[in-house]
Amino acid sequence: MSDFTADFCDDHSEKVTVLGPGYHNYGGAPMCQGEVVTIKLDKNNADLVALLRDEDGTGKVVVVDVDREYYAVVGENLMKFARKNNYSGIVVNGYIRDTFQIKDIPVALFALGTCPRKSIPVTAGERDITLSFGGAEFKPGDYVYGDTDGVIVAAEKIV
Question: Which of 3, 116, 125, 133 is the most exposed place for a label (fewest CB within 10 A)?
């Protein structure tokens, strides 16, 4: 990605929505861009594991909405799956863990914060649905751009 989110906001303000404050990049890649793949989780990340482990992520960013209880849904193992399958980044409306281990994995990982605990109960997630959080709406097929200034979403590819 040669342009930055600030440039997109300046040049295409009518086309982008900015994800609200509080999301930080914990991954080893300083930027990401790609087509949105959405998943909503309810107390368990098994569906996210399968997505990152089993599907080609070339040109994609996974956007994850969580029920917002205090537990982590992404850590070292999922970041390794994301890297292996070429995902550009992950945006989590929730928490992550293993920050020491994931800081060197070259995938961007934006999240609200960290938590050492993972969720155990097995529940099903929902794929390819519209997600709304942080003042932004993410639809499957939209495009996400993230860097050190923040995360933006657009209905179509800008670059």
Answer: 116
